[in-house]
Amino acid sequence: MKNLLILKEKDCKDFFKKIIEKDGIFICTIATTETAQIPGISAAGATPELRKYTAQADVEYLYYGKPFTIREIPKNPLGPPSPVIITKAGIDLMGLPIFIIDAGCEIKPYVPSIVLRERGLKCITTGQAFKDGGVELIKKSEVLAKEFLKFDRFVILGESVPGGTTTALSLLSFLGINAFGKVSSSMSDNAHNLKEDVVIRAHKNSKLSKEMILKNPVKIVESIGDSMQLVNAILTIYLSKKVPVILAGGTQMLAVTAFIEVLEKYIGVKANWDNIAVATTRWVACDNKADFVGLAREMGKLKYVFACDLNFSESKMEGLRGYEKGLVKEGVGAGGVITVGFIKKCFSHKKILNEIERLFEKMSK
Q1: Which residue has the higher pLDDT, 44 or 164?
Q2: How many domains does the chain have?
Q3: Looking at residue 305, which CATH number applies to its domain?
Q4: What percentage of the chain reaches a pLDDT higher than 70?
Q5: DSSP bridge partners of 176
Q6: SS3 string of the chain?
Q7: Per-residue pLDDT reduced to its tens digit, 86-128
Q8: What is the C-alpha separation between 349 and 365, in angstroms, rounded?
Q9: Are 102 and 189 spatial neighbours (Cβ–Cβ below 8 Å)?
Q10: Nearest CA among 283, 167, 295 for reference residue 229
Q11: What pLDDT digit, counting tens, does each position of 323-354 carry?
Q12: Pairing status of strand 98-102 against strand 24-30
């Protein structure tokens, strides 16, 4: 399919057909974690202080075209804007309804949102990222999934969690997946050594045993993961039973996928893997300082993995060309939204690029 990289199962006709025949909705799960405050761990926001507001500003921009909790949308310290600008361009062109799930933001966004958790998350190095909140999140997420199913629409499920690739590495590696040196990042160098040091400290301080994977996997994510991972995993399990679910993101969504496999046994509910895909951007899929494709192949039950072939090298906007230098790669569901737009032929590469440039130009005034 034009403008789409198919990275795992090659026969995707049935999955594409389901997407083409249905309307969709976009759901973005947000959370804040003090893990993102570690200097050098993330570039999802120009400074550690501003990263406290990245998730909120992202979703405010989706609704209003401007943020309220901070003056401008989050950007990499070297200039490129948050991938939310890509997401908004795709959502606007497709007319997708937006739903925001607050899975734990310390400061609440100025948007209509479904609040599942009032407080933000601690740093995973404490070994107690969000103590004793997992069971309640499972119950609330199950109820939400049943309500979303009433729309009978496919779901693009995104996230905005600064520091989330580090919590993804933490969860993946605890589940026995060799993810060190393989997760993507909002930075060009990926800060692998720093992330690995943080994860090793988190695992040590959590005092969790490997037996917890089968006995109580919720305790794992409460201790060394993040709440988005749990919420999106539960939503996917229940939604996939009836509609396609596109997990829109990079290695963070692969962590969700790995967690789904564990949660299926724990809650006694099986996901429909014929209805589940992970979709990201070319910048993640082709990142030579990570291994998204290799990690995706380790997800035993996951069949469908895509990357939208966006290219900003010929953009007239210098900030957007920064994406081609690896300064920003993915976030806020950007890859999944554009992937769906290409599958449904809602826009060409030229049209989506023009809309992204228009939004960026408007933002820069």
Answers
A1: 164
A2: 1
A3: 3.40.50.10210
A4: 94
A5: none
A6: CCCEEECCCCCCHHHHHHHHHCCEEEEEEECCEHHHHCCCCCCCCCCCCHHHCHHHHHHHHHHHCCCCCCCCCCECCCCCECCHHHHHHHHHHHCCCEEEEECCCCCCCCCCCEECCCCCECCHHHCCCCCCCHHHHHHHHHHHHHHHHHHCCEEEEEEECCCHHHHHHHHHHHCCCCCCCCCCCCCCCCCHHHHHHHHHHHHHHHCCCCCHHHHCHHHHHHHHCCHHHHHHHHHHHHHCCCCCEEEECCHHHHHHHHHHHHHHHHHCCCCCHHHEEEEEEHHHHCCCCCCHHHHHHCCCCCCEEEEECCCCCCCCCHHHHHHHHCCCCCCCCHHHHHHHHHHCCCCCHHHHHHHHHHHHHHHHC
A7: 999 999 999 999 999 999 999 999 999 999 999 999 999 999 9
A8: 25
A9: no
A10: 167
A11: 998 888 999 999 999 999 999 999 999 999 99
A12: parallel
Cα distance between residue 150 and residue 148, in whole Å: 5
Give the pLDDT score at 157: 98
Nearest to 360 by CA among 67, 70, 84, 56: 84
Q: In this structure, are residues 271 and 241 in contact, taking their beta carbons and an 8 Å threshold?
A: yes
Is 228 in contact with 30 (CB distance < 8 Å)?
A: yes
Rounded CA gap, 108 and 142, in Å? 23
Average pLDDT along the chain: 92
At 76, the pLDDT band (50, 70, 90 cuts) reads low
- Mean pLDDT calculated for residue range 215-223: 95
**Structural domain span for residue 239:** 4-364
- Indicate if the pLDDT at residue 63 is higher than 90: yes
Q: pTM for this one? A: 0.95
Give the Cα separation of 167 and 197 in Å (integer): 12
- Separation between Cα atoms, residue 341 and residue 151, nearest integer Å: 19
Sign of CA dihedral 164, 168, 174, 178: negative
Tokens standing for residue 47: 């400074």
Cα gap 127→341, rounded to integer Å: 40
